[in-house]
Design a protein that fits this description.
Layout (H helix, E strand, L loop, with lengths): L7 E5 L10 E6 L8 H8 L3 E3 L4 E5 L5 E5 L2 E7 L2 H20 L16 H6 L14 H10 L16 H13 L8
Antiparallel strand pairs: 1-2, 2-6, 3-4, 4-5, 5-6
Helix pairs in contact: 1-2
Length: about 180
């Protein structure tokens, strides 16, 4: 087990606006978890991975973020104390599980943050049909980049005449470790 002990876990309201109804937290420990980060990135589809500084940013649903540093975990957007503790336990488990299985995983050194909205847009049908729930294909492309929706939400993209575009878009997204937040 790579990360077996948390030395300190501080939970607090955001310093810039203490009236917010969310909590932030920072867990510190002495072990260096950076060897696990490329594997956690591969398993969880990290939003941003800085290989030089060994920092992995994970975007979760409902405005929650977890940032992994070599000797620190930062959690942003927990609803309450219970959720802050649950998020820490979950990410600790993910770190240990990914690290334990590292020999069977392919590490990922890229991140979703590198996805370009215009590159996504070029591969969409450009019908502006609104079937996805967005007013334009540009808005859909931005939401897709953020992981807020999936490729299935674009009904024209499911049509046979757009299959080549859909395949290229899927490959482009996967090359950055993209995944929808709810998948």
């Amino acid at each position: 087990m790579l990360l077996d002990r948390i030395d300190a876990f501080e939970i607090f309201r955001p310093k810039m606006d203490s009236t917010k109804e969310v909590l932030h937290a920072i867990a510190t420990f002495t072990v260096d978890i950076s060897p696990a980060l490329p594997y956690v990135n591969a398993e969880l589809g990290g939003w941003d991975y800085d290989q030089t500084n060994q920092v992995l940013l994970l975007k979760l649903s409902d405005g929650k973020w977890i940032t992994l540093h070599p000797r620190k975990i930062a959690i942003r957007g927990a609803r309450d104390l219970e959720e802050a503790h649950a998020l820490l336990a979950w990410i600790k488990g993910q770190i240990n599980d990914s690290y334990a299985r590292r020999h069977s995983l392919t590490p990922r050194y890229t991140s979703q943050a590198g996805l370009k909205i215009m590159e996504i847009l070029k591969l969409l049908p450009m019908t502006n049909c609104k079937a996805c729930g967005y007013p334009t294909c540009m808005a859909y492309a931005a939401a897709l980049r953020e992981g807020e929706i999936s490729l299935k939400d674009c009904s024209p993209l499911q049509e046979e005449k757009y299959q080549a575009r859909a395949d290229k878009l899927q490959a482009y997204l996967e090359s950055f470790g993209w995944r929808a937040l709810d998948e």
